Amino acid sequence: MWINLILRTVEQGLAFGLLAMGVYITFRILDFPDLTVEGSFPLGAAITARFIVMGTDPFLATLFAFAAGACAGIITGLINTKLKIAGLLAGILTMTSLYSINLRIMGRSNIPLLRQPTIINNIEGFIEGIGMNPDYVSLFGFIIIVFIIKILLDYFLYTEMGMSLRATGNNPIMIESLGVNTDVYKIMGLALANGLVALSGSLVAQYQGFTDVGMGIGMIVIGLASVIIGEVVIRSSKIPLATLGVIVGAIIYRLAIALALQMGFAPTDLKIVTAVLVILSLGAPTLRKFMIQDEFADRLMERGSSDAEN
Amino acid sequence: MLKINNLHKVFNMGKINENYALKGVNLTVNAGNFITIIGSNGAGKSTLLNMIAGTYLPELGNININEIHVTKWPTYKRAPLVGRVFQDPLRGTAAEMTIEENLSLAFMRGKKRGLSRGINKGRRQEFKKMLSWLELGLEERLEYPVKLLSGGQRQALTLLMATLGEPEILLLDEHTAALDPKTAIQIIDITKRIVDKNKLTVLMVTHDMKQALEMGNRTIMMDKGKIILDLQGQEREDMTINDLVKKFSEKSGHELTDDRVLLSEG
């Protein structure tokens, strides 16, 4: 029973790992706080559900999700770079629009996928064909998908274009003076990131067997939490290790949530738990400084009193 | 060759903090010229360099580099023509990326960037050679993130990067001002060597009067958005720092005032 629970949790973690990779690209590589994620995650789920219900091949429906997410990222990028609206607001504007768009795509607020063919069924067929235990279907399938994408992303970030993308986030003035149009690269990065987020939404929908229009709420915080946990577990500036950390972070996050649920937390309370986790980790450097200062003050006080005694 | 015609720049036009930074600057810089630029605070020295680099676009006037009309071009489009080193060592390099990655970014100056690896064996060899030429031991640290380097090392690396990909013009904006005196001398030395080696056309803003006269072959003085003095040839050869300061007062009608101006013979 426990093994089964852990297995299911790791599978979820892998599916959310793509979301975390998207957030890693925007927050860490591009240094762009992108909230489009909250809309592009359900967008991927909505597109996939609608196309699968219409009878489209589930692999194709999953690819469409990626493309749709990329478009959402491009729109945020255009709002930010061409209209000069702050990145945070640009993301919020796209995210808000996507709520209406997602409802239009779905036609209602919830689409069940339980009796529909999904990529998981397809992999199941394949796995039974080669005689493996069907319990591991999703695990096997998700590991392959997530790691293929991870390796492609690692490779990309070391290409001339990928390095320019990293420089765009790290020092835009410098890379512009070397001939890179940072607007184009920002848009490209946002497209890539939101494509991955939508892909994640698509996998999660197919895994849980339904798409809900509200499934994007809190996704940005979950993605951030995963990235941060990953950075704690695997501390490295080397890209392949950093992206591995992000995936591991997403899995650990899911395990922590599963544990919290087992401990009797109400599922509806988990969002605040996650938010507090992110606040504490992002605020850690400042908090630590406070504590060190206090310690210093304490020592000074101690010495003061002992000095007074002498 | 750089040709600047009647260049005007106004910041915050019509607002209370309006700043008329350049008031009709004319300047012709021939290939191989090394110009040092001096002037008071707010004379428009940095603004002039920013306009050449494309950071700001002018209200009036035009800029030609090698007969190409670049007045309206954004910075990234001018990259093949203009290399630049800032005063702040942090601005010229990507801190989180390694030394070789930074060099590779500069190596592709103004070229189309594709999906091939940014660093390969051939390039790495080439980068090693360039770095050992700096004589700072950086060639042993190709895979170090740049954030681990000192200000002087970063500025040396920036100089190398600014001259990679053969730009027509090198802009130096008080690029040693943020360094300690000893490191500053080292960077000035590297600057001279790099300029000699690549036969570069240079515009260098400095607040060090001695440097202004010693380096390069031409000195221009700016005041209140205008070029008030253009020194070259024998006249410049014979000039001492005191003459230069006196000349400034004559031409501008006030003393040379810059918080950091260095007048000493040092």
Characterise this structure.
The complex is a heterodimer of chains A (310) and B (266). With 310 residues, chain A is mainly α. Helices cover 79% and strands 2% of the residues of chain A. Chain A has helices at 2-29, 37-53, 58-81, 87-106, 119-129, 137-157, 160-170, 172-177, 182-208, 219-233, 239-262, 270-309, and strands spanning 110-112, 210-212. Chain A has a two-stranded antiparallel sheet with strand order 1-2. In chain A, α2 runs antiparallel to α3 (58-81), α6 runs antiparallel to α11 (239-262) and α7 packs across α9. Chain A starts with a helix and ends with a helix. Chain B is of the alpha/beta class. Helices cover 34% and strands 23% of the residues of chain B. Chain B has 9 helices and 10 strands. Chain B has helices spanning 45-53, 75-78, 99-107, 121-134, 151-163, 181-198, 209-214, 233-237, 241-252; strands at residues 2-11, 19-29, 34-39, 60-65, 68-69, 82-85, 169-173, 201-205, 218-223, 226-232. In chain B, the strands form 2 sheets. In chain B, strands 6-7-8-3-9-10 form a 6-stranded mixed beta sheet, sandwiched between helices. In chain B, a hairpin with a 2-residue loop joins β4 (60-65) and β5 (68-69). The longest helix of chain B has 18 residues, at 181-198. Chain B is globular and about 60 Å long. Classes of the chains: A mainly alpha (310), B alpha/beta (266). Chain A binds chain B through residues 156, 158-164, 166-167, 170-171, 173-182, 237, and chain B through 53, 74-77, 79-80, 82-84, 91-97, 101, 104-106, 108-111, 113-119, 145, 161, 165.
